[in-house]
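Dear Dr. V.,

Thank you for agreeing to look over these. As mentioned in my earlier message, I'm a first-year student in the group and I'm still getting used to reading structure tokens, so any feedback on how I've presented them would be very welcome. I ran two proteins. I've put each sequence directly above its structure. The first is here:
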Amino acid sequence: MPTERTQRRLSKVAKPVDKRLYKNYLQKSEEMLDVARYAEDTSKNNAAVASSVHCAINAIDALAVFYFGRRHGGGHEEALDAIRGAFDENEFRDIAKQFSGLIGLKNEAEYQPDLMKGSQASDAVRRASRILSKVRQKLP
């Protein structure tokens, strides 16, 4: 569980969500991963990266809604605080590493004129898949 200090900070940016709706976020995450894999397979690298990012964001929202009845409403970088208590420290560090790698590509893939490379697309799909797999292990 998040510390009391983290709980207070999260309550300022967290949006309450009925816990039963975690399944919707999980479904969105799974669909985004399917799209990311298709995009990667067809060399649509920008779409693969963007879909991978949204897969991870929805996976984290699914976990936060299931365990804590809310999702993060602030910057994506701080979204991990919403799920800190759902993992042991080693698992959390791994998820944080995967997530920060994806978020690092988000701006470039979605808003900048540069195009994503195949290696970036493959890396993003791998990271998103790993995050979703770990999140699924924590859900019924």
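The second protein is here, in the same arrangement:
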Amino acid sequence: MSCNMDLASRTGADDPGHPASLDETDWRIVRALRADGRSSMRTLAARLHVSRAGVYARVERLQRAGVIVGYSAVIDPERCGYGISAYVHIKISQHSWKSVRERVTKIPEVWHAALVSGENDLVLLIRTRDAATMRDLVLNRLQTMPDVLSTQTVLILDEPRIDGAADEPEIGSAG
């Protein structure tokens, strides 16, 4: 595939129902930005052996195509005062997942919420200062919420930092 081909045609930007088709250079840029989203275009160009203009144009096209949707900082929860983390699995009343998800995502201690298949309906990543705060959140805020049938809390015992670029598939394996 030519590197000069318009990314919009390769990514399916005109058809959001189809996954993006990234070439090797696109994947290298994505992996580099996942590892360090603050990298300058100059740094990316030097690291990837691509012209600065080429990197800039590709990043811009990746953003327009919806492949890159934002940038964020990776923080250490413990250094921010969150000493305990847990995954809370929630079983909800049938057809109420949208309203429950909307309510739980407004809780500041909920860092992530996912609709899942299987025995439970939602899985939340919750971080609190201590066990008492976690207990209060689960017992008094989640379990008393309308449409919540049950919860199961799984404490996170260890959470090593994982480099964001490590989980990308090899070129050509995703499609």
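From my reading of the second output: The first helix runs from residue 7 to 11. The radius of gyration is 20 Å. Does that match how you would interpret it?

Kind regards,
E.
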